[in-house]
Amino acid sequence: MTVKQWQKPEYLLMVTAAGWGAGFATWLALLNNFAVDAINFTGREIGILQSLREVPGLLAFTVIFVLLIISEQRLLMISLLVFGIGVAITGLFPSEIGFYLTTILMSVGFHYHETLRQSLTLQLVSKDRTPLVMGRQISAQAFASLAVYGLIYCATKFAGMDFAIIYALGGGVAIFTALITWSAYPLFGTKVHQTKTIVLRKRYWLYYALTFLSGARRQIFMVFAGFMMVEKFDYAISTITALYLLNHAINIFLAPKIGRLISHWGERKALIFEYVGLMMVFTGYAFVEDSNLAAGLYVVDHLFFAFAIGIKSYFQKIADPKDMASTASVSFTINHIAAVVIPVLFGILWLTSPASVFLAGAAMAAFSLICSFNIPRQPAPGNETIKGPRFPQDDVLIAEKI
Asked: Which residue, 175, 246, 251, 308, has most beta carbons within 10 Å?
């Protein structure tokens, strides 16, 4: 069967990223206002919600179990479908328990989809193109999100559209994308048969550390930066959405360029740049009193997300090709260990000292910076770190058979 240009793996991954972006943009744009205005959440409840949202991420390693009965590509689409359903029904349950349960359903699809898209990208794309292709996925996601934020801005600013309708429409885009990609794209074979065990290798320790710190730090942004805009500066839905519009408009153009920059600079230099910038941003969050300056920090913070591509491309360069699927699932679990705890604990801390929450984020960025200095300029199997213990390629810390 002849595969057309638009049916190549790179385009499948971009299309699913766009469908995912549209659904998540809807959920995220309405999150804080739905929580505060419709359900009367405080920092405590928003912290619980975000911790519950991250529990499926902690269990992302279970992807390996499901892959015993279905291909990665098909599971990618099923997870996008589940995600879309979770978003679509959120507005139908405007209560504390209802919001918790729909968030968990959405999150199962969300984290499975992210795990599988990363795994398939690392398997189907060459090492020299991976940062660029991941940048294009971010760009496609940003384009879809930009369109959704524009529609939400108009719907809330001029039409007064109800939460339930907006949630249903946003989730519907993800559902439609899942169904279309299932029927329109052929199944792609991977070059290397993937390990069907849960594997932790000692020589990947720096990748695990960077992943853990990235998950912890990201939660502070995801949970508390946007919440600060609503609680401290009284941002309305339309204002928050306008801010998201700006973020994604910038990412459409800059994300692929950042991918190229990572390929040119190398992961070490790119990640050092990211973490120095994040230390400054989080310190700024802690002391900002001007709403416009806070918005500026938020835009810069969001831009740094694209540099996290460097962690994934670093892993691709040092890893055994057969470990991609297994390690993608394990890394999402590692990424979410702190994510399950931080929203609740920091939500309580938020009640007494919001600044302390952001200063903790700056400290995490500092630890990440220290780790990034240990990345070789030319990472490869056997050259995973500059300093620290070296392990043979077959040295396994954990190999849990399924």
From this structure: 251
| C-alpha–C-alpha distance, residues 309 and 294, integer Å | 25
Per-residue CA distances from 278 to 81, 111, 217, 359 (Å): 34, 24, 9, 11
- Report the C-alpha gap between 355 and 361 in whole angstroms: 10
Q: How many CA atoms lie within 13 A of 22 on its CB side?
A: 27
CA distance 391 to 261: 30
- Residue carrying the six token digits 């310190």: 283
Domains of the chain by residue range: 5-401
Which residues lie below 8 Å from residue 297, measured CB to CB, with a gap of 6+?
281, 284, 285, 288
Tokens of 402: 């399924």
Continuous H helices in 37-129: 43-58, 63-66, 72-88, 96-124
* Contacts with 171 (C-beta within 8 Å, 6 or more apart), sequence order: 23, 26, 84, 85, 86, 87, 88, 89, 90
Decide: 99 and 35 in contact? Cβ < 8 Å: yes
pLDDT tens digits, the chain, 402 residues: what are they? 455 766 788 888 899 999 999 999 899 888 888 888 888 787 678 778 877 887 787 777 777 777 778 888 899 999 999 999 999 999 898 888 999 999 999 999 998 898 888 888 888 887 778 888 888 888 888 889 888 888 887 887 777 788 889 999 999 999 999 999 988 888 776 665 656 677 778 888 899 999 888 888 887 887 788 888 888 888 877 777 778 778 878 888 888 888 888 888 989 999 999 999 999 999 999 998 888 898 899 888 888 888 888 898 898 888 887 877 777 777 777 877 776 777 778 888 888 888 999 999 999 999 999 999 999 999 888 888 988 766 666 565 554 444
Burial of 70 per CB tally in 10 Å (0-12, 13-18, 19+): exposed
Q: What is the DSSP string of 149-192?
A: HHHHHHHHHTS---HHHHHHHHHHHHHHHHHHHHHHSPPPPPSS
Q: Which amino acid is residue 1, in one-letter code?
A: M
> Rounded to whole angstroms, how far apart are CA atoms 377 and 317?
11
**Is CATH 3.40.50.2300 what the domain over 5-401 is classified as, yes or no?**
no
